[in-house]
Structure formats: C-alpha cells, structure tokens
Specification:
Layout: H1 7-17, E1 22-25, H2 27-33, E2 41-45, H3 49-55, E3 60-65, E4 70-75, E5 78-84, E6 86-92, E7 96-102, H4 106-111, E8 121-122, E9 128-129, H5 134-139, E10 142-143, H6 149-155, H7 158-170, E11 173-174, H8 176-185, H9 194-205, H10 213-218, H11 231-239, H12 244-249, H13 255-264, H14 269-280, H15 290-311, H16 317-324, H17 336-340, H18 347-362, H19 369-381
Parallel strand pairs: 2-5, 10-11
Antiparallel strand pairs: 1-2, 1-8, 3-4, 4-5, 6-7, 8-9
Helix pairs in contact: 6-8, 7-9, 13-14, 15-16
C-alpha cells in the first residue's frame, strides 16, 4: 500500500525532491494510514522559499505564508502547500512563534509538530519516516503530544482543542499525561482568538453521526465559546440535520442571544441571520401546507426555508414540489413607487404591501399589477 497523490501533485514533489529533500507530511499521511480519503496534501522541504520559486517556476505559485516558509503550488487545478523545514521558538500569547528558524533537517522539523500521529513523513518513493512512533499510537488509537505535553500546550494553546477534536473525530483516547497537561492548560485558551476556537468547534459540529455535547461538558469548554451548557442542547444536537447553521442554532434559546454571541464569534452576516431565524422558529408551529410554505419562502428565501423545515423535522416533499413548480412568491407585481402614485405614504405603503402579499400568498394567480392596484384602490375607498 503506497501513498498515491494525484499525478499533478506527485509531479511537483518529485521535481523539487530532485534538488532538495522533500517529503509529504502530516495529516495526509495520517488519513492515508487510517484508510480515509485524502483531500489535502502538504509537503515539507529542505529548500528555501526562493529555491522553491526557482525550481517550481513553471507552476502557479501563491505566497501563502512566506514568513513561515510556506508556498502553495498549483498544477492542473491541484494544489499542495510546501513549507521549508523549520524550528519555532519563543511562542507569544500561547499561539504565535516569536521566531521561525529555517533548517535543512527533517528531524528538527518533525520535532516541532503537535502530536505523534501528525508527525509522519513520506518521500516521493513511498518510504515512510516515523521518528515519534506515531504508527504505534495510531494502531492503539492514542493522541499523544510530541515531547513534554505541558510545554506543547503552553506554546500553542489551540493544540488543546485540536487534541480533543482529533480524539473525538477518530474515536481515539488522549494519552494519560497529555490529558493531565491538557486540563492544567485549559485557562490558556483565553489567550486564543475566539475565531480560532470557534473554527475548532465548527469542525467538531460537522463530524457526521457524532454529538459533541458530552465532550464539550467533560473538558469544560462551554465558557471558552461564551455559551452556556444545558442538557436540552444534547438532544437538540442529536436531532439536528447535518448542517452547520442548524447545529449552531441548537446552542441558543433566543434569537437575540444567538445574534449577540455570533457577532462575538465574528461570523458572517449570512450565518448570523440564518442562525437567528432558526432559533426564532423553534417556538413557531409550522403547518406543512402550500399557504404556510409560501409565507415561509417569501419571508426567508428558499435556502433558509429549507433549513428551517429540516431543523423542525418537517417533511420536504411538498416544499420540493412547490419549488420545482415555482409555486411560491419571488416578489410582488407592485412596489412602493406604484403605491406612491396612488397617494399613499409611509406606513400606508408598508400596510398596503403587506395586504397584497397576504392576498397573493393565498392565491398566487392574483399577483398581477393591474389587479393589485385595483385591490388597493378598493381598500382606500373604505
């Protein structure tokens, strides 16, 4: 059994290895050994950034992180990140190395990595290097820090969440001394930006057929995400569809609380809006009939409406049929400008548009400009 990246990636690594030691490293080898599909490939090399640029000049090169010796090489739409062998020293705020020293030694590069199961290397000919007995830990399903675990977590506190995520996703156990150090190091998570912590939470939430609630409670992680633990979250996560916004909505009991927290998390406006709506719809009873579904789509759009229905475990057959037949309201045949010409203003316009929407949502065939203007004129006479 041999690691076989796509041919364009093999070509890049082979070419660089003809001049400098170059190895596939990290997660791609771990996933390969676990029999998982490998999606992303990383390599490490003795070549400097400038040497890489010169040798690989025929390919598209993105300067992903030159300061840390990393380039992304693209060949025929396949990409690989290649990083110069390096040593990291004197971490700042339990996350960022104060200095990066480039080296020609693979051994030194592997020593700086977080866990034994992430410290594999493989040359282009398929020869594996396992300096830290990661294969033993992989076979025994163990997450173990390289070297002193207390030191490794102190260097980069995000490793705390990575250790938990790897153990959770792979069904592994965190090695005894590593776990002791992890618990002692938990307060250092305060120094990590909320975005990075939430990225790890999102990854845990999107692991299929798993519920992270008990893990978050066991490791006392809720406070580090500015959310509160509650037993009802566990059952909500159990029932939630495999959708990130739906999973996140399980943690909240009011839309305003969700919005406030997700703003702290620096989530996108779209995610904040969707999660807020999902939380609000927890308390709303929805019927699975055409009029209700037309209202839902009109107010929320197709994408969010489908999430809401899935979140509330409502059958989607009728919804999909209505979408296919375009039996929903995109927009009214009239707008505010049309109503201004009738002499309406301010709140009158808003009320008139609302009345027209209610009419059309019940009977879509009435969404005609002349009919709706006539309808409004009749209301004005009353």
């Amino acid at each position: 059994m041999q690691l076989l990246p796509p041919q364009p990636i093999q070509e890049v690594v082979k070419k660089l290895s003809e001049h400098y030691e170059t190895y596939y490293v990290g997660g791609c080898i771990r996933d390969f050994l676990l029999g998982k599909e490998v999606h992303d490939y990383d390599a490490a090399t003795a070549a400097s950034v400038e040497e890489m640029k010169e040798i690989l000049s025929e390919y598209k090169i993105i300067e992903t992180g030159v300061r840390h010796g990393t380039l992304t090489i693209i060949n025929q739409h396949h990409h690989i990140e290649i990083t110069t062998f390096r040593i990291e020293k004197d971490y700042i705020h339990h996350r960022t190395p104060k200095s990066v020293v480039f080296t020609r030694s693979l051994r030194e590069d592997l020593k700086r990595r977080d866990f034994t199961i992430n410290a594999f290397a493989c040359d282009p000919d398929g020869n594996f290097i396992d300096e830290h007995h990661g294969l033993d830990d992989l076979n025994h399903k163990i997450i173990r820090c390289i070297g002193d675990p207390q030191k490794r977590f102190h260097e980069d506190a995000l490793r705390i969440l990575r250790a938990i995520r790897f153990a959770y996703s792979l069904g592994f156990t965190i090695e005894k001394e590593t776990e002791k150090a992890l618990f002692r190091s938990l307060p250092e998570l305060e120094s990590i930006s909320i975005e990075r912590k939430v990225d790890e939470l999102k990854k845990m939430l999107m692991i299929k057929d798993k519920n992270p609630y008990s893990i978050l409670v066991y490791y006392h992680l809720f406070p580090y995400f500015d959310i509160k633990a509650h037993s009802s979250i566990a059952s909500a996560l159990e029932k939630a569809p495999h959708d990130l916004e739906c999973k996140i909505a399980c943690f909240f009991f009011s839309g305003s609380y969700a919005r406030k927290t997700l703003k702290k998390w620096h989530c996108s406006k779209k995610m904040i809006r969707q999660v807020e709506k999902l939380v609000e719809y927890k308390k709303i009873v929805l019927s699975n009939d055409p009029v209700t579904l037309r209202h839902l789509i009109y107010e929320n759009g197709i994408e969010l409406s489908e999430k809401i229905l899935c979140f509330k475990q409502i059958d989607l057959t009728l919804f999909h049929q209505m979408i296919e037949e375009h039996d929903y309201l995109d927009k009214l045949a009239i707008n505010g400008n049309d109503l201004i010409t009738l002499g309406l203003e301010g709140k009158q316009i808003k009320e008139a548009l609302h009345r027209c929407a209610e009419l059309v949502l019940a009977s879509p065939s009435l969404n005609q400009k002349e009919y709706l203007l006539s309808y409004i004129k009749s209301l004005m006479k009353k």
